[in-house]
Amino acid sequence: MTILAFFLWSLLKVAVVTVVMLMGIAYTVLLERKLVGRIQNRWGPSRVGPFGLLQPLVDGAKSFLKEDLIPTAVYRPVYLLAPIISLGCALIAIAVVPFGAPAMGPRGFDLFEISNINIGLLVILGITSMGVYGIALAGWSSNNKYSLLGSLRSSAQLISYELALGLSLVGVVLRAGSLNLRTIVDQQATLGAATWNILGGGQIVAFFIYLMAAFAETNRSPFDLPEAESELTGGYHTEYSSMKFAMFFMAEYGNMINVGCVATLLFLGGWTSPLGDLMPPLQSTLINALLPIFWFVIKVFGFLCLYVWVRGTLPRFRYDQLMNFGWRFLLPLAILNIVGTSLWLAYR
Amino acid sequence: MTSFIQNDVPLSWYLLLSAILFSLGVIGFLIKRNLITVFMSIELMLNAVNLSFVAFACQWHEVRGQIFVFFVMMVAAAEAAVGLAIIIAVFRARSTLAVDYIDLMKL
Amino acid sequence: MHLILFFLFAGFCLAGAINLLMQTHPINSALSLIVVMTSLAVLYLLLGAEFLAIAQIIVYSGAVMVLFTFVVMLLNAGREERTLGSHAATRVGFPAVVALFAVLATILIRAQGLGAARLGEGLSNAPGQSNLFLLSQVLFHDLLLPFEVTSVLILIAILGAVALAHVEGSKIPDSEGTASK
Prior knowledge:
The complex is a heterotrimer of chains A (348), B (107) and C (181). Chain A has one domain. Chain A is built from twelve helices and no strands. Chain A is globular and about 60 Å long. Chain A is mostly helical and 348 residues long. Chain B has one domain (11-101): Helix Hairpins (Orthogonal Bundle). Chain B is 74% helix and 2% strand. Chain B has helices at residues 11-31, 35-60, 63-94, and one strand spanning 9-10. With 181 residues, chain C is an all-alpha fold. Among the domains of chain C are: 1-78, NADH-ubiquinone/plastoquinone oxidoreductase chain 6, subunit NuoJ (Four Helix Bundle (Hemerythrin (Met), subunit A), Up-down Bundle); 130-165. The longest helix of chain C has 26 residues, at 50-75. Chain C is globular, with a radius of gyration of 22 Å. The termini of chain C are far apart. Classes of the chains: A mainly alpha (348), B mainly alpha (107), C mainly alpha (181). The interface between B and C is large, with 74 and 85 residues. Strand 1 (9-10) of chain B pairs antiparallel with strand 1 (116-117) of chain C.
C-alpha cells in the first residue's frame, strides 16, 4: 500500500468515525432524556419528528443561534481554549478503539480501527488525564467563585478516581499480557460470554471498580458534584453560553461513549458475539464485517443505558463521602484485586 | 513504504534541541521571580535531559537509556509533590511567592 | 515525514520554552510547559520509545502539570514583578549558561559516530520483541529492587507532602469538608 493510499484511507476512517461519534453524542443526549423521562413517569421529548427523533438537530441549532456571551471579567485566551481542550480530548480517545473484526480492508488494511498500536489502553488513559485541563482552566478563567469551586472539586475528583480507574484495569492487562486492545479482546473471545473478563476472567470486582470510577471520571450522577446545581449554580461552565457550553456538554457525553467503549473492550468481549466460536462462521463477507460492529454497538448501548438508569435512580453524594469512597474503599479494593489476580495467575 | 517516510533525522539535532531546552531552563531559573515558575524551569531542565537519554538509547539500541528516563520521571513526580507542598507551606508562612522576598536564609 | 514531524514538534518545544520565559502570569507559563512536554512525547515516539512517550503524557502532562496548575489556582498567584534578580545571577549565571551551551553545541556538532534516528525502528528488531517487552524484562527482572525502592520513595514523598501541607490546628474553616482528620 502506497503512502498516499494509506493517508487517504486513514483520512476517510477519521472522518467517518468523527461523524459517527458526533451523531452518537447527539443521540445519547436524546436517549438520556427519553429514558430519564420514562423513569420519572413522563414522556420526554416527543414533539420534533417521530418519537422526538429529530430533537438533537433542533437542540444543536438552538445552541448555534444563541447569543455567544463572553463576560468582561474572564481571562479570554484560556476561557476560549478550555472548551476546545475538553471536546478535543473526548473526540481523540476514540482513535485507538477497535470496533470491528481486524484486517477486513484491502491488503490487510485495518478498516475498523483508526490506529492499531501496542499501547492503545495507555493512550486512552493518557488522553483522559489530559481532559482535566479543560475543566480546571474553564473554572479558573471564568473569574467566578462558583466556577472556581466547581473546577477545583472536579480536578480533585478526577485525579483521585483516575488512580482507582487505572488500577482496576491492571487485572485485565495481567490476564491478557498486553496493552493492545485487539489482543485483549482476542484473549477473551474464545468461548463467548463464558470467557469474557467480567465472567470467566473473574474480573467482576474490577468491573465494579471501573464502573464507579468511570461515573466519577465523566462527572456523572451520582458523582456529578462539579456541576451540583443546588450548590454551585452550574459548576465550571456557569459562565459559558451558546456553542461553548454545547462543547462542554458534548465532551461529557463523548466521554461517556469512550468509557462505554473501553468497558466493552476490556470486560465485555469487545466486538465478539456472546456465543463465541460456538456459532459456525458465516459465509457472507458483508455479514462477517457488519455483525461485529452490531455486537459492539449493542454492548456500548447497554452500558449507556446503565449510565442513564443510575442517574435516574441514585441521589448525589456529598463531597466528603465521594473522597472517602474513592480513597478508602475503591483504591484498596483495586489493589486487592491486582494482588488476587496475580496470585491466581501465578499459582493456577 | 516509500522513501517519503524514510528520511532520517541526525541524532545530533535531537541532542542540540535538548541542549537548547536545558539552557532555556537555566535562564528561566535565573530570570523568573515567581517560586512556581522557577520550579517549572527545573522541570523543563529535567525534560531536556530526558530527551537526550532517549536519543542515546536510540543511538545504541539499548534499553537502559529508556529505563533511566523512566526512573527520572518517577523521581520527578515525587519531587513535584514535595516541592509544591513546600511552596504551599512557604506561601502560608510569608503570603508571597516572589523569590525576592523569601530571603531569610541569605547571608 | 520524519523531518517534517521533527521540525514541527521541535518548533513547538522551543516556542513553548521561550513562551514559558516571556510570560509573566504563572498559568500561561504552566500552559506553555504543557505544550513543551506534550511535544517532547511526540519526539520520543519519533525516537522509537512509545512507552516513554505515553508515560510522559500520563506522568508529566497529566499529573505533574495538573498539580502545578492546581497550586497556581489554589494560591491565586498573580502576575510576577520583573526585578533584576541577584548579582550572582547576572555576573556568573548568564555567562555560565552561554558557556555551557557553547561547549555542548560544539561537542555535539563535532561528535563522530552519532547515527540517525530512523522511523519505525525499535530497540531490538527481533520479531515479537516490542520495546514494551524489553523494558518490562529489564524493569521487573534485572532492576526489580531499584523499581521497588522508587515506589517506596514515592510513598515517602506522598507522606512528606501531606505532612508539609497539613496545618496543625488549622484556623481556616474547611468550607468543603474535605479534610478527614
